[in-house]
Structures are given as structure tokens and as C-alpha cells.
Amino acid sequence: xxxxxxxxxxxxxxxxxxxxxxxxxxxxxxxxxxxxxxxxxxxxxxxxxxxxxxxxxxxxxxxxxxxxxxxxxxxxxxxxxxxxxxxxxxxxxxxxxxxxxxxxxxxxxxxxxxxxxxxxxxxxxxxxxxxxxxxxxxxxxxxxxxxxxxxxxxxxxxxxxxxxxxxxxxxxxxxxxxxxxxxxxxxxxxxxxxxxxxxxxxxxxxxxxxxxxxxxxxxxxxxxxxxxxxxxxxxxxxxxxxxxxxxxxxxxxxxxxxxxxxxxxxxxxxxxxxxxxxxxxxxxxxxxxxxxxxxxxxxxxxxxxxxxxxxxxxxxxxxxxxxxxxxxxxxxxxxxxxxxxxxxxxxxxxxxxxxxxxxxxxxxxxxxxxxxxxxxxxxxxxxxxxxxxxxxxxxxxxxxxxxxxxxxxxxxxxxxxx
Length: 418
Ligand SMILES: Cc1cc2nc3c(=O)[nH]c(=O)nc-3n(C[C@H](O)[C@H](O)[C@H](O)COP(=O)(O)O)c2cc1C
Fold this sequence. Notes:
Layout lengths: L15 E3 L2 E3 L3 E3 L14 H9 L6 E8 L16 H16 L3 E7 L8 E3 L10 H11 L1 E3 L9 E2 L11 E2 L5 E2 L5 E2 L5 H17 L4 E6 L4 H6 L14 H19 L4 E5 L13 H19 L5 E5 L17 H14 L4 E4 L4 H9 L5 E4 L1 H5 L3 H7 L33
Parallel strand pairs: 3-4, 3-16, 4-5, 5-12, 8-11, 12-13, 13-14, 14-15, 15-16
Antiparallel strand pairs: 1-2, 6-7, 9-10
The chain binds flavin mononucleotide.
Protein name: NADH:flavin oxidoreductase/NADH oxidase N-terminal domain-containing protein
Organism: Gossypium raimondii (Peruvian cotton)
Family: Belongs to the NADH:flavin oxidoreductase/NADH oxidase family.
């Protein structure tokens, strides 16, 4: 019997109603930074990439997309804060819609995971006078990157990331994360406003909704996690205080574009970029309690809650490694799923088998696939027929070539593109 017709027990290929969206299957393209939007403007290569991964009734999430000019921490990441970016995104969204998928725009601010200046390793020019050489070293090699005016990145804290992490610079080198500047309370409303404007821009570009990136050690997670947030004001300390920044953003964006068009991503148990918490389960539950309350208050559910599960650790530096035992991870995810009153999407290390299992056992409504979707543009088709998968090539994850490692992974058969 084809899996789409399974009786009772849902599979990855059972239809799903996500609020007002009727999905024909549960395999979602996970948000993934791919560094192909030169100078922040999405270009035609992105339309090709996203349409390759579109299916009738499918669902895509864009790469992290910058909410403001202080939000970047990777080279050539698209933005959604000015008209030129909105116009460029329109073409991509239209192309995806023409293939029958919906597409959510992931709103991103990296916070302290950014950089302000790129000190190249300068060459020595013995033929220059010492004075000119010093000028060269100070001015010409001191290129401003990511932050306007070379300002310090913003965060909940003024603690820099530990030496365990390195930042990818525009020239392909890796730098040390600089000391950030802790946001003052009076500055927070402006940052919230950036998310709101970006969400409105995304809807203007035709996106079906937006996903607020509250995961993986970036700005919102820097407020959520007690391993980073060392504030003594109303945004630090208690769980209620640490959740406040996220909830102000969610509230403001929901008011602007409607709760059913917004989604939230969190990763309470992921320590990417030093984002540790002393009690990940309680943190996850605290966010969920507040999202449930907001949904009740607004009389509308969010589109979905997207949770990266600890197995995601495998995505970072290595291909293996776990935070807790398999049972601990399953308990955490299951408890969060059972507590959230709405659509629950999981991500992180899912194979076909694990995805099938999660959906069948009620641990996930939807499953987002990352790396396997990079190397298999027709992943939905391949998973459906249980076909072999292309292997992904890590070294082209973040390069700028519009084709190589981006849109040149082979389809199984030509028909699967239809
Ligand atoms: C190249 C790459 C870029 C990523 N960029 C983002 C991103 O922009 N936003 C985000 O929330 N997660 C990002 N992730 C995490 C993925 O969404 C996903 O959760 C992760 O890859 C684990 O899923 P997988 O095991 O199916 O790859 C990225 C992952 C990869 C491999």
C-alpha cells in the first residue's frame, strides 16, 4: 500500500493541515544559510535553488534572512530590511509558489556572533617607508565587515564568544569573535521594531509567513540562555525575564502580520555558539507556556513551533556526538511536543527512518531536513520511494558560487523535477 494511504498512523507522506495551509506531505526544507546572496540581495540562483526543492503542497523555510544592517555574521546573507531586497525576494517567492510550495522567511539577527573589522594578515613591504607601511597596516588592512561603521556587535551581554568558535569572514578566512556590546533597555524596542518591519516586508514580498530564529546561539537565544545572558535588569535572571525579548518580538510581529503567519524556532538543548542553559527542558517549557498563552489571547494559533533537537549537535563541528543519552533527548523533545498546543516541527539529524518514526509516534507533526536537502534537491521524491541519497559536500556549504555545491546536485530522474 502506498504510504500516503496509510490508515490511521501518519507517515512523512500523509497530508497535514498547518493552520490555513494544506500540506501534502511533512518533509520541510530546513532554514540554511548558503551565502549566495551577494551583498545581501537575493539573486536568480536563489530562485533556482528554492524551486528545485519545491513540491506541490510542500513547505520551505528560507535561509536566515537579516532583519537589519546590524544582523549579519556570515558573508553574503540576504536581508529583508530594504526595498531592493523585498523586490528581489518577490521573484523567488513567485517562482516557489508556481511550483506549488509555500515558503516562510526566517528572520535572523546574529547578535554577538558577528564581527566588526577584518584585520588581514598583511604582507611586509620593505620597499615602503615605515610611515607608509604603518598607514597601510592601519587603514588598508582594517576592513570593516558585517557591522556598519565597524561598531561592536550587539547582544544581551558584553561577554564575547569563547575561543572554541571562529567566525567565517567574507574573504574565506576565520576570525576571532570580538567583544559585543550589551543592549541597553532603551535600545530594545528598536530591535523589536526591526523584526516587525522585516516581517511586514516579508509579507509584502509574498512570503506565506515568517519564522523567528530564536535558536542556535544567535541574538534571541543570547537572551534566552542563562549560560550567556548575565543581565541584572528586567531582561535577565528569571526565566520570565529571559523570555521577554523573544515574546516582545513574537507579540509585535503577530500583531503586525497575524499569528497564523508566524512561526518560532528554538533550540533549548543546543550549545552551538556557547548557548548553554542550566535547565534546557524548563527553558523550552517556559517558552512554550508563553506561546500557548499568546495563542489563547490572540484567539489564533501560530503557524508552527520549530524545535532543533539535540542530535543537531552533529550538524556543527563534527558528524557525531550527543548531548545526553538517546532517552534523555527523546524525553525532552516529547515533553516539549506534548506541551505545545499547535503544530510542532522537529529538526536535526533526521534520516528517512527517524522522520517516519517521529511522525508515526506523534513526536513531530512536520520534520525539517537540512543537509540531506542540500545534496538532494528532490529529497521528497527520494524519501517517498526510499531511493539512495546523494552525499553532501560540506566545503561548498558557505561558498558563493551560484551553481557549484548549490544547484548542481543531481536529481534522481528528470521526471522528479516535474
Ligand atoms: C549549511 C547550513 C546552514 C544552516 N543555516 C541555518 C540557518 O540559517 N538558520 C537556522 O535556523 N538553522 C540553520 N542550519 C541548521 C538547519 O536548519 C538544521 O537544523 C540542521 O542542519 C540539522 O538538520 P539536518 O541534520 O537535517 O542537517 C543550518 C545548517 C546547515 C548545514
